[in-house]
Amino acid sequence: MSEKSYIVQLKETTDVNKVKADLEASGAKVGHVYDTVFKGFSVTLPENAVSSLDAHPEVQHYEADKEMHTMKKD
Q: Model pTM?
């Protein structure tokens, strides 16, 4: 079973540790926690478990983690 990484944005009133525990109980591996610009974290989980993000009431938004650049390379 392959895994995929996501960036998860939570609702502002959410207890991050509660959501982390919920997802870790389903086999997710939580990475970096974001708390400056938005509340959330990076997470790696099996592709068939992404529905746990859809179903979680405290998840506001998530997207697949990918490499991004701030400057164009020639």
A: 0.84
